[in-house]
Amino acid sequence: MALGKNKILWGLLGLIIISVIVTGFYINDFTKTNIRESLIEEKTEIQMIMTKSLAASVNSEFQRLLTDMKTISESAQVQESLTSSQTQEYLSNRWNNINSITKISDIFLTDDSLTIVSQVNDEKFRLVGLNLQNIQSSEEFKAKPGYSGEIFSTDGIYRVLVSSPIIDSESGEFKGIVFGIVEPSEIISKYIGIYEIDISSITIFDENQKILFAENTDLLGKEFSSYFAQRYFGENEIQNSHYENIFLGNTDSFVYEAHRFGDVISTGTPVSIEEKNRFFFFVTTPVNQIVEDIEDNLFVEDLKNNLILFIITILFIVIVIKRVRSIENEKLLVIGQLASNIAHDIRNPLGTIRSSVTRIEKQNETINETINQETERIKRSVARMNHQVESVLNYVRTTPLNLSENSLNDLIQSSINSLVIPKNIELNIPKEDIKFECDSDKFKVVFENLLLNAVQSIDSKEGKISINSNQNEKEITISFENSGPNITEENISKIFRPLFTSKLKGTGLGLSSCQNIITQHQGTILVTNNPVTFTIKIPKNLRKEK
């Protein structure tokens, strides 16, 4: 009797255990599915934001390049001669200025027969003497500024030509065209660090649905509907419909199943320039990259015998992942969207203002002092607004150091020249110069931010900014001391935090950018009071340290 009862109890216990195990597997399966769908949904939304932001940033770059080409075509040097030494020198200077912001391969001029007569950079390929009558959109280029994708040399790279016609300012006759050559990869790589997109996942089409940029270089110049491209993309009808929808001018996202790379998320958006869709951006990422970590964790949990611990662990993982994703989303939405919006919405009108001021100065032949004063005020305001844009972009983008030997005093003077130091502030720089290795462009960002902070701290009072330096065999020390009020103890511990600012204006990213740049140089930056002093220490010979 007792034995029978024990058998029944053991049977019930076994049934309960089996039920719990089955329920556990069901819950585990259900959890996996929900987590996977949730992650895919979140990733799709984030990827769409990144796609739009990247497209907006590239749009801004091309808009600015178009303005640059217009400025060159209207310049006095180009108007006077297409081939003179003065024109060549002017083009070279413009090329260097443009490259300081957006890397372009070359600038060249054609005459009215579209034969290239002047070229800035002939190290990679010589173009003088080449006729462009047969290139795509050549007739349109004669009439108005524009863009065209071309395989322009023997290296097989598909480049974009940004152009503006040269119209004689007196007779109104067509004299030729100014072209800038752009490699899409150069512009895209500039923003990869900002939006955390793998460059291999990006594909760009031009307005004729030809591939401008792709991981597989054999695709460059191929039309999407071509046999080769269709074979590569898998001749997937759903995918083709998704791509065609974007080619029609829509922004779209889709999750493909049974893709050639497995399940993927694809997001795309057109890029409109001067009210016409000139480019189409696509970002495609495999789903397994998103869920592989959680799948590994769940596989481990399947092997555990303690079902309660298993369920708690799964719930904990879900909560942690949700929280991490939420934090990442907030960071991306705040910083990424801020950067792209500023770049897109401010830089375009700034370029127009800058161009207009240049024209006003050229036409001010009577040397009207009042006009000169006003144009100088406008240029200072434009520089200030551009500094705000750069403070955001300098924080979010990380690029490798471009090391070279530099003069400390030259870098300081260059930074001073880019700012407006009020007359009420006395500025002292080191008497003895120091030669050291650094990325000059990044160090100018640091010096400009520290000088600007000091100026804003002193404000309208009489004050002084002193820059001091010293060195030993291993490192150099640079200090920026100002007579402004002390920083409160509460703020001094937060001063290098991103988005922290005690001022009514500013992004709160300037000092964070400074710290990032100094850290990248394997150095340190500290701030102390009595008086307020920012002290930088970096290795003197950085190449030896690396």
General description of the model:
It is found in: Cell membrane. Keywords: ATP-binding, Cell membrane, Kinase, Membrane, Nucleotide-binding, Phosphoprotein, Transferase, Transmembrane, Transmembrane helix, Two-component regulatory system. This is Histidine kinase. By secondary structure, the chain is of the alpha+beta class. It has a domain at about 405-545: Histidine kinase-like ATPase, C-terminal domain (Heat Shock Protein 90), CATH 3.30.565. It is built from 15 helices and 17 strands. It has helices at about 1-75, 75-80, 85-100, 140-145, 185-195, 225-235, 235-245, 290-300, 305-365, 370-395, 410-415, 440-460, 490, 510-520, 540-545, and strands at about 105-110, 115-120, 145-150, 160-165, 175-180, 200-205, 210-215, 250-255, 265-275, 275-285, 405, 425-430, 435-440, 465-470, 475-480, 525-530, 530-540. The strands form 4 sheets. Strands 2-1-5-4-3 form a 5-stranded antiparallel beta sheet. A 5-stranded antiparallel beta sheet has the order 7-6-10-9-8, sandwiched between helices. A 5-stranded mixed beta sheet has the order 12-14-15-17-16. A hairpin with a 6-residue loop joins strand 4 and strand 5 (about 175-180). The model is unreliable at about 1-5 (pLDDT under 50).
**What is the number of beta strands?**
17
Q: What's the CATH topology name of the domain at 404-545?
A: Heat Shock Protein 90
**Separation of termini?**
82 Å
At the fourth level of CATH, the homologous superfamily of the domain at 404-545 is Histidine kinase-like ATPase, C-terminal domain
